[in-house]
Amino acid sequence: MLKTKIIKYLNYLNDSDYIAEIVSSPGADETLIQLLHSEELETIAATCLFITDAVLLGSQNQICQEAWESESKLAIVPELERLVLSDNHFIRKQVIYTLGKICSYDSVPILLQAFHQFRDQDPILLPRLVGELFWLGVDHPGDVIQSMITSPQYLTRWAVLRILDEFIYNSPDETDEIFLMKYKFCKSLYDDSNFLVQAEANYEYQFLKLNLRWRQENLSKSEYKKQKKELKRLKPVLSFFQVSGQFNNYLYENRLYHYSIEELETFVGQLMEETTFFRG
After folding, report:
1. Looking at the predicted structure, is the pLDDT value of residue 164 above 80?
2. pLDDT for 218-230, tens place per residue?
3. pTM for the full model?
4. Which of 154, 158, 155, 134 is nearest to 144 (CA)?
5. Continuous H helices in the chain
6. Which terminal Cβ of the chain has fewer Cβ within 10 Å, N or C?
């Protein structure tokens, strides 16, 4: 009965009373753990959604808050952390997202372990994984990015650009440390040995450079817009964002839950051929 209610939570989104009824029921934590042990992606995803909302809605419902803080947190978080190292790419991604959403700051060590384990094995995972590490306040986030930049695997280096684009904003203020970190890392990749990494890094770097000039040289709006329009001609044929999105869809549609670097490289090569063909 509890299993069914948890799986069907999707029909009762944000209903704190529905959640409270479940978390206050005898055996709730054991049931959640059983569902996390199911090894079925859809079941684990539904369970993670329930856990996330049970934690986040705790501020609105005292029953939810007390249940999580008194018992559930100690029982559930270790199970989520165990799944961070799952063989299933999608399960890893789901539980990493969940740990970030519930602000599980003590999970940073296991997320770092996953980063080092999957850095060159699952580049498609890295934007989500590194993003949650940033969100949870990992020490020395620049070192995480630098580790990727020095990777011998071009797909890992390419993933850096997606991370920088998604989690570090494009402030034109040259005194902003975060902006300068993004500027530095894009600059270090714009002469990368791989042409796909090089093309996207150069595109991003030139925009950042323009933003920096806008502030330093006080460019007029018309001149800024003109140069920005010219830079759009540098837009690469493929970005890591495009590749990761299409590859994730390919994996999911074919019920493939893990992949090799060779399979991903072949997929990228096919995308390149298709893109070149359609562009003439």
Report:
1. yes
2. 778 888 888 888 8
3. 0.91
4. 134
5. 2-7, 16-23, 28-36, 41-56, 62-67, 73-83, 89-101, 108-118, 126-135, 141-149, 154-167, 177-189, 195-217, 221-231, 240-253, 261-278
6. C
